[in-house]
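> call design_seq(struct)
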């Protein structure tokens, strides 16, 4: 009779020895986990040793050790691989190394400092591996692939060559707990897979594409991620889905050399809307720039985030209410944490009644997100006059010129920033 803590064979000689956490409802503060999660660890038996691939969260160590002891003795373990050192993968490592002191630990180059901080052992012995390096278990070979920033600097993937199993770490994983383990047996986890990508991998889309160049050529019979279902049915379809999610779509819509400028605004009485229109018209005077105008009052954040991810520049217009930009503007700006926006072009404008702080606040936030803000924003008191609309027109035109490389980036001095903050 099977026990609740039984190890699960995924292929001959290779077992899942992880832990289930079905009650988890929030991961790392930012992720909701309606179905909990799994902390996947694997044991690989070769003719000349046993390898453990990743461990589990410290709070679930008992489950991990109970399953490991069913398939291997501690004195048989020759190899420990950590694909990623986040605590949910490395929590049981110190105790595992105490129980199997003869085992050699293999980690990526960028994992060294993190490992020392985790284990607090100056005598800690480990081996650094890079793409192409291998470790033999006799009749089985582990080959390493460096996949940095997916989603930490230290991440890597490990291929069991003879069985064509990719131990992928966080890549191709998701937070979805189902004791049936395999993707062809568990419930429908598509939402969790996509949600995980959007919140964990999406900010590192460029690194995803680099990693896929390494992983796509591999012949894979099974993908064993660090979280969520083991992908034994059509594993390549998940690789292909990552390619789709990470590939830009905008080049299919505009010319190969065109730039995209998005203008977002929200307007209480139509004044900021008039300014937005003027900014748009100014930008449209420059060839090679595709300009799009959006009213934030009419849509949620997610569709706009998708657009911003691929755009070259964004301009945001807001009235000033109670000394602040309005909530939809901050909602949009806060949602940009899930995508890469550094080095995009940014700008701001808006109408105000008394003080007009919103424009400087938006510009500060754009700079904090590492966007370039080369042109001073435009403010207009209440109904914008003709000359203020002309300044908006010029704002759009100058931003478009910067996008096309027709103007050198202008650095605003600290004295100018201080002067603007007191206007």
């Amino acid at each position: 009779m099977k026990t609740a803590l039984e190890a699960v064979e995924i292929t001959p000689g290779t077992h899942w020895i992880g832990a289930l956490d079905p009650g988890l409802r929030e991961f790392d503060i930012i992720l909701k986990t309606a179905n909990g999660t799994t902390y996947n660890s694997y044991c690989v038996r070769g003719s000349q040793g046993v390898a453990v691939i990743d461990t589990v969260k410290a709070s679930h160590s008992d489950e991990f050790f109970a399953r490991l002891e069913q398939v291997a003795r501690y004195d048989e373990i020759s190899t420990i691989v950590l694909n990623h050192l986040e605590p949910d993968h490395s929590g049981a490592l110190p105790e595992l190394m105490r129980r199997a002191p003869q085992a050699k630990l293999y980690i990526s180059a960028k994992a060294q400092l993190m490992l020392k901080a985790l284990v607090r052992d100056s005598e800690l012995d480990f081996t650094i591996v890079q793409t192409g390096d291998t470790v033999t278990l006799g009749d089985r070979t582990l080959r390493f692939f460096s996949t940095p920033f997916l989603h930490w600097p230290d991440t890597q993937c490990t291929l069991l060559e003879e069985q064509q199993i990719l131990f992928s770490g966080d890549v191709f994983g998701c937070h979805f707990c189902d004791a049936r383990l395999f993707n062809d047996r568990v419930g429908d986890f598509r939402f969790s897979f996509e949600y995980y990508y959007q919140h964990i991998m999406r900010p590192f889309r460029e690194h995803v594409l680099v990693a896929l160049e390494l992983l796509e050529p591999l012949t894979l019979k099974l993908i064993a991620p660090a979280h969520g279902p083991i992908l034994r049915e059509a594993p390549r379809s998940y690789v292909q889905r990552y390619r789709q999610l990470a590939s830009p779509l905008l080049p299919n819509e505009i010319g190969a050399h065109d730039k995209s400028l998005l203008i977002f605004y929200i307007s209480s009485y139509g004044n900021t809307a008039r300014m937005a229109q003027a900014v748009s018209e100014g930008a449209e005077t420059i060839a090679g720039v595709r300009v799009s105008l959006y009213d934030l009052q009419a849509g949620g954040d997610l569709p706009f985030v998708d657009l911003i991810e691929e755009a070259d520049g964004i301009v945001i217009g807001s009235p000033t209410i109670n000394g602040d930009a309005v909530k939809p503007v901050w909602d949009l700006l806060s949602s940009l944490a899930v995508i890469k926006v550094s080095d995009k072009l940014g700008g701001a404008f808006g109408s105000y009644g008394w003080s007009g702080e919103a424009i400087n606040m938006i510009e500060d936030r754009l700079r904090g997100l590492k966007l370039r803000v080369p042109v001073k924003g435009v403010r207009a008191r209440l109904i914008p006059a003709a000359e203020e609309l002309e300044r908006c027109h010029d704002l759009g035109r100058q931003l478009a010129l910067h996008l096309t490389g027709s103007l050198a980036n202008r650095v605003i001095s600290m004295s100018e920033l201080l002067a603007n903050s007191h206007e």
